[in-house]
Amino acid sequence: MFTRLQLSDSTAANVEWDMTPDLAFCTFSAKGLRDDLSNSDERVCYFFVDNYGELPRLYLMERGTRFVNILAEVKAPIEMLNDAIISHGSALSSKDNFPVDAALKAWLISEVVERENSPFLFPTLQQSTEREDFGVPLPVAGEGGFQGPRRSLPQEQCTLSENQLEQIITQWNFYDTLLNPLGEFTNALTDSGDGLTVIDEATGIMWQRSGLDLSSIRKMTRDIEELNKKSFAGYHDWRFPTVEEAMSLMETSPNAKGLYLHSCFSKEQPFIFVAAKRSPTGYWFVDYKQGKVYWSSGTVPGGFARLCRNGAKR
Length: 314
Hints:
Helix content is about 20%, strand content about 25%.
């Protein structure tokens, strides 16, 4: 199988059968929850079932720190994919990623992994490096024509239970693929003119167009302090967004870059920290790749950040 795939030099040519989508997050994004990777450049391959579309699909993933790449799609029998979802205690309507089960693993070994030219394996095309597309230019701040009342979102750090989180999603009608698939929060994004930030005139919040790279929350907190000392974009009060603020950016469908986010924002921060811990344990994140809010356990989680500030306050 691997002779047909373009693996990087850091990727081992074997399948990590014990790897799951959740464990991959803990290993490569939440950091520190596994010690069996020899270095931060190492990458592994694993299969998973994607059930976000109308029908489940089976993919071979290449995963590493700061690296995610779908190597191939596998055209497995749909009945086997359905059985794999059910075997993990989920309904077929559940929108999530799932590990393979024992039956699907056995089929993959015999029909895909150990066959040099498996008719079920369809490698993805390697994409050339292109300049990121930020979409149609935004209107200039103050000239966007927004006339509605400004919506004041909570700005304080907090601890939320799952029930409280669901209430927030419902209260503000934020879109979430799982919790509120019919929701929609309307923004009024405008260009602040510095090339670094945008202002949502519907909420009064200024946002980074890009953000901070993958790191632990401890290091991220130090990076924010340093960024404020240097007055990024002329301001020194940048912070993690609250759940409400981060969810206010969630779009109802993916953009051309595959994120549930306006194209004016960089694709390099697919999921971000928010200023909220989970009760009784864990941290809340907003995932623009999957279009949902989720939590991760662990005392030192890792993620990206897109910082914000009150746009009316210098």
